[in-house]
Amino acid sequence: MFDRFESGEQALLVHVDFPVETDREDLSELKLLVSSAGVETLGVITASRNTPSSKFFVGSGKAEEVAAQVAAIGANIVIFNHALSPTQERNLEKLCQCRVLDRTGLILDIFAQRARTHEGKLQVELAQLRHLSTRLVRGWTHLERQKGGIGLRGPGETQLETDRRLIRGRIRNILGRLAKVAKQRDQGRRARLRAEIPTVSLVGYTNAGKSTLFNKLTDSHVYAADQLFATLDPTLRKLQLPDVGDVIFADTVGFIRHLPHDLVAAFKATLKETREADLLLHVIDVTDDRQQENTLEVSHVLTEIEANEVPQLLVYNKIDQHDDITPRIDYDDEGMPLRVWLSAQTGAGVELLEQALTERLRPRMVNLALRLPPALGKLRGRLYTLDSVTDEAVADDGALILQVRMSQVDWQRLCKQYEQEFEPQHGGTLQGYVE
Q1: 10-101, superfamily in CATH?
Q2: For the chain, domain boundaries
Q3: Which has more confidence, 392 or 134?
Q4: Which residues does the annotation place in the binding site for Mg(2+)?
Q5: Which residues sit in the known binding site for GTP?
Q6: Per the database record, which ranges form the Hflx-type G domain (predicted)?
Q7: pTM (predicted TM-score)
Q8: CA dist list (Å): 183 to 15, 24, 50, 276, 338
Q9: Which of 22, 102, 228, 395 is surrounded by the fewest CB atoms within 10 Å?
Q10: Residue 138 pLDDT > 50, yes or no?
Q11: Which residues are annotated as a binding site?
Q12: Span 230-239, pLDDT tens digits
């Protein structure tokens, strides 16, 4: 769509330290991103600045150093650990005579590699097009060409205007297709709501071990690897928990510091699973030196997608790499599980997580003794179907004495379902048979 140098697989990395914490990036994280993209790192150049330069992002002297290093080591792409403006990218490419990519472009490239489902590919393409649309102000000469030829002479439409129009049309097309996918997701979500099946969504910083934990919990085989954004397409699996029943688990894309807004916008439908979950499992890597910053970044993204009000259970993962940490559950002042310490890789503490999930999701239970006449055998069968009868005896008058344990929701539903079948002396409700 515009004249740029061909991309390559041998990269020179550029990292700038800023005094303001919100502007800082992690160099080790950049190296992980580059490795996850399948690119070889040939060298790293670091710099310190108070504010970015409008022309090169770095100073002119440092930009010359970058260009010289590119020529010396034979790199064919320069990757900045920061977001560059279109003008900065153009100036750097002209100086270095090779492709220049910023942090946002790198993350988009990794997402493009990881997308497997139709929905995931559409979401990535939408994010790429939105990012690309801001890059059409570069000013290469062909972008200002007029249409020519017989029947097309005159003011016509510039190539830049044509490109913008084509991108807008493609974006509209993708949004329409994603809307259909979102409608299908909503139908599945409504069905789960009608069945009152709770949903648990795994969230956390990228590479915290969400997919490994997801596989361990649900006995699945979702792709899990020690790399950033190993999971892109959401996966749903069903698991049974004691006193809870069926629970839907959702494995979602990992978050990252300064996650590009184009990606957040494109993945709104996918992230809706997180926003409408009953509980979030916030997986935290205990081995990460930036554990606190990463936790805050996840909270920031959850706020951005309006999921910050969903209850959370913190899961501290990878304790097998710490000799002084053992599997355990930490409780809050009200006796509810707050944190679980485990290792998804070895399985140590996973049973504690299932216990904590049961305690967090378990509905209010009722314990009742019912005295049913023989004529209500149909109701007795229904109670056994719900697996709620804990004991049964027969009274001298032939009545059935049932000890019943079930959720408050199931009990109320049963009362409503059978209210028309009861005799007037019991008030037209199943409550009349409670001893």
Answers
A1: GTPase HflX, N-terminal domain (3.40.50.11060)
A2: 10-101, 197-361, 365-433
A3: 392
A4: 211, 231
A5: 204-211, 229-233, 251-254, 317-320, 343-345
A6: 198-365
A7: 0.68
A8: 42, 39, 47, 15, 34
A9: 22
A10: no
A11: 204-211, 229-233, 251-254, 317-320, 343-345
A12: 455 567 788 8
